[in-house]
Design goal:
Layout: H1 2-25, H2 32-43, H3 53-67, H4 72-92, H5 103-127, H6 138-158, H7 162-177, H8 181-197, H9 200-227, H10 231-239, H11 244-262, H12 273-276, H13 296-330, H14 333-349, H15 358-377
Helix pairs in contact: 1-2, 1-5, 3-4, 3-13, 4-15, 5-6, 5-7, 6-7, 6-8, 6-9, 6-14, 7-9, 8-14, 11-13, 13-14, 13-15, 14-15
Length: 378
């Protein structure tokens, strides 16, 4: 009887997590955490939180940036969003899902990502420039799809049903059309990790991905010539090292270093970059609204100081170390998939700043919780 109840509980949680990951994949990160919290509160009434040292230190480091910020109220509002994601992470850390029952969760994640890719493709065909949707811009789409590609690759290697191929092609095509350079770089870093730690099947999938990107670029180029859309023009701006977006980032990074040096310990306050930046605009920089440093390490240094920077990267290194340890012991590509997906996500954050926004940031906490949960059960 007890075993039946436990099995039903695991099935319910598996369903809740499947819905959670589906909405993340489709770009509904604002909605997905509430599904899981609702499940934990009202279906099984099991409100258990699990804490670990490195994540608690991260929480404390970020809280210090709020306490000592001159923008304390504004920074506190941003901290509450961060704290909400941390609570979701702490709930996820008590998940009963096993390695064997996790396939459904990632199938739903890819299903959501495939729908997002389809929406982005429609956006490209409508605008003729890049992939986007009414609810998510090209960089948001780029982040989520770059994170989904390693999951799709491993699914192909392990299963390879026709739907997996269709999903893989559509996600890859829309990632290319997103014109999100940061997402491309994030995926490139993930592919390096897959090459270093993957087996022959995984390395073969990297070659397939590279060939697919070449074919897709050729197809979209021919389509651009035939229709006269702006795909090629916009693509070339991505390669132009003197384009406005690249020059702007250099100015922002230089200003960020000055901001950090003036607030080295606890920073200007979580989320307060945009409030402080106008005082540090360099001569020659364009007068634009800048919400973040467009670089995760610099953004951490500016907003949370050396304290937040060290606690965050200690937590990140902890995740990598634990996942690599499980991979070494089990030789299971599942752990490599999680680590590559996390790498694609973090890689994009080297050029973006959506780490602490709810709709994108929740991906980091989900991957972190899954890595630690499955590591403990391996």
């Amino acid at each position: 009887m007890g075993k039946d109840i436990n099995d039903r509980s695991i099935k319910l949680e598996e369903t809740a997590l499947a819905l959670f990951t589906f909405f993340i994949g489709i770009g509904g990160g604002l909605f997905s955490p509430f599904i899981y919290i609702f499940y934990r509160l009202f279906l099984i009434k099991n409100w258990h939180l699990k804490f670990d040292l490195y994540s608690i230190l991260l929480l404390i480091g970020f809280l210090m940036s709020v306490i000592f910020s001159e923008y304390r109220i504004f920074s506190l509002q941003n901290f509450l969003v961060f704290f909400f994601m941390y609570i979701v992470y702490s709930l996820l850390r008590t998940s009963n899902i096993t390695r064997e029952s996790s396939d459904r969760i990632f199938d739903y994640w890819l299903f959501g990502s495939t729908l997002l890719a389809f929406g982005g493709m429609v956006g490209y065909l409508y605008s003729g420039v890049y992939a986007d949707t009414p609810f998510m811009g090209k960089n948001g789409i780029g982040t989520l799809l770059a994170t989904a590609v390693p999951i799709s690759q491993v699914k192909l290697c392990c299963r390879g049903i026709p739907y997996d191929y269709l999903s893989f092609i559509l996600i890859t095509a829309t990632l290319l059309l997103s014109m999100s350079q940061g997402a491309w770089i994030g995926l490139f870093l993930a592919e390096i990790l897959l090459f270093v730690f993957g087996d022959k099947k995984i390395r073969k999938s990297i070659l397939v991905l590279a060939l697919l990107l070449i074919v897709l670029f050729f197809i979209f180029s021919v389509h651009s010539f035939a229709t006269g859309n702006r795909f090629l023009d916009f693509f070339y701006t991505r390669l132009d090292m003197t384009s406005n977006s690249k020059v702007d980032r250099i100015y922002i990074w230089r200003s960020s270093i000055k901001m950090f040096l003036d607030h080295p310990i606890t920073g200007v306050g979580l989320g307060a970059f945009s409030l402080e930046y106008p005082d540090y605009v360099l001569p020659g920089a364009r007068e634009i609204v800048v919400s973040f440093a467009h670089n995760l390490p610099l953004n951490l240094l500016v907003e949370t100081g050396i304290l937040g920077f060290l606690t965050f990267f200690s937590f990140l290194i902890y995740l990598y170390r634990r996942c690599l340890s499980s991979l070494k012991i089990s030789k299971d590509n599942f752990y490599l998939m999680l680590l590559a997906s996390l790498t694609a996500y973090i890689g994009h954050q080297l050029f973006d700043g959506t780490m602490w926004s709810l709709h994108i940031g929740i991906v980091f906490w989900l991957l972190g919780a899954l890595i630690l949960n499955f590591d403990e059960k391996s």
